[in-house]
Amino acid sequence: MSDNSENSIPTPSSPPPAPALTIKPPCPENMWAELSIAINYLTRFNLSFQEEPKPRMIRKAMGWFPLIGAAIGMFGATIDWIMTQMRMPGAITATFAVIGMLWITRALHEEEFATLVNQYGLELDKEKKIGWLREERSVRYGTIGIIMIIIMKIGAIASFADNAVVFQALIVAASWSRALMVVAAAWLRPLPGDPVADHFVQPPGLRVAIALGLGAIIAFTMLGEDTAMVLTAGTIAGLIVALIGANHLRGYNGPLLGTLQQVVEITILGIVLAIQ
Predict the structure, then answer these.
(1) Backbone region of residue 88 per phi and psi (left: phi > 0; alpha: psi in -120 to 50; beta: other values)
(2) Would you list the domain boundaries of the chain?
(3) Cα dihedral angle (223, 224, 226, 232), rounded to 10 degrees?
(4) Which of 10, 61, 110, 139 could serve as a FRET partner for 131 with CA atoms 20 to 30 Å apart?
(5) pTM of the model
(6) Least confident of 77-86, 140-149, 202-211, 253-262
(7) Angle between the 163-187 and 65-85 helix axes, to the nearest 10 degrees?
(8) What digits encode the pLDDT tens for the residues 118-168?
(9) Rounded to an integer, what distance in angstroms lies between the CA atom of residue 112 and that of residue 120?
(10) Phi, psi at residue 252, to the nearest 5°?
């Protein structure tokens, strides 16, 4: 009788080849932490954390900026709609919509815009030696800039045909302007000593792609066939601001990102107003 025990010994199978590319999806806990970071920075809400967020998670949080921006735009549009139902005139409803967005964002980007405008204004005075009487300025350039931006926003919102256009314009403007903030942060060098640049540094490439994807999807959902024109105009405006940062600041800081957001937002509102 032959012994077949050798044939019964199992032979080890070779391990399957490793995949060429692996993408690990974020776990729900990390995703909520990233969203919380984005909410805390872009709005006045202060969500708590179980533990201090890691720098890597803070950088990744920028990928969700367009989503939070869309919520901010919807908040302002909702205020406009509610006051329209109360038979308020367009100038009043638009004013309260802008005030509502200023409140929910703590006027964060407006303040950063004012800082950069004031900085350029003071440098312009020094270069041209304006103010030979050496009088003290009682109104800063940043204050004038903020007044102009707020007036333009109120004028644009009040001029939209109906509440549906207000929703479309505010959501797209608030979302895409914050998506381009992520692109600028990834492209430009973070300036040391600035709180925003020190925290967000440069977001990973995948998060930049997520931000652009979210912004584009939101815009297409709102605008349809007009999406390409509106986003192109907003992107050109953002590129101009980013080039100012690359040329003058040699990097990015909070004031530059805030200025980019404001310029892109008002550009998109103007383009939607023109094509409605």
Answers:
(1) beta
(2) 54-275
(3) 80
(4) 110
(5) 0.86
(6) 140-149
(7) 160
(8) 887 766 666 555 555 555 555 578 888 899 999 999 999 999 989 999 999
(9) 13
(10) -125, 155
Note the residue count of the chain. Answer: 276
Per-residue confidence (pLDDT) for residue 27, from 0 to 100: 66
Tell me how far apart the alpha carbons of residues 181 and 72 are, in angstroms, rounded to a whole number: 15
What residue has token string 């708590």? 48
Q: What is the pLDDT of residues 71-83, one digit of tens each?
A: 999 999 999 999 9
Q: What would the DSSP string read from start to end of the chain?
A: ----TTTTSPPPPPPPPPPS----PPPHHHHHHHHHHHHHHHSS-----SSPPPHHHHHHGGGGHHHHHHHHHHHHHHHHHHHHHTT--HHHHHHHHHHHHHHHTTTHHHHHHHHHHHHHHHHHHHHHT--TT-PPPSS-HHHHHHHHHHHHHHHHHHHSSSHHHHHHHHHHHHHHHHHHHHHHHHHSPBPTT-HHHHHH-S--HHHHHHHHHHHHHHHHHHHGGGHHHHHHHHHHHHHHHHHHIIIIISSB-HHHHHHHHHHHHHHHHHHHHHH-
